[in-house]
Design goal:
alpha+beta, four-stranded antiparallel beta sheet, about 45% helix, globular
Length: about 110
């Protein structure tokens, strides 16, 4: 069975992006593991007009339905919510993320 891939793009101000990087660097990894979210890559764009304001996450889940359940549990975790508050990240940055789901092609080396 193929996994579902998820591309999440957080767009914010440069100052907020620094806070978001700190939050991800210090805390997100263990929550991703806890809720079954596999991190493929955490990226920033190379283009100068987007680089200072975007964080892009390429993630994998067992299925799209699982992805939705994973994120529901992740977002409801009171400890995660506490870390977001402590990091000073504007909650709208977290809630206004652009999300796209993908299926691997039949010839993709990554499934």
């Amino acid at each position: 069975p193929n996994r579902t891939f998820e591309l999440r793009t957080y767009t914010t101000t440069a100052a907020e992006l620094d806070k978001l990087h700190g939050l991800f660097e210090r805390h997100s990894g263990r929550f991703f593991i806890k809720y079954g979210i596999q991190v493929i890559a955490l990226l920033t764009p190379q283009t100068s007009n987007e680089a200072p304001t975007q964080l892009v996450c390429l993630l994998a889940h067992e299925s799209r339905a699982t992805a939705i359940d994973n994120w529901r549990s992740f977002d409801d975790d009171s400890r995660w919510q506490q870390f977001v508050r402590e990091a000073g990240v504007d909650p709208s940055v977290i809630s206004q993320v652009e999300i796209k789901y993908f299926d691997p092609t039949f010839y993709s080396p990554m499934k």
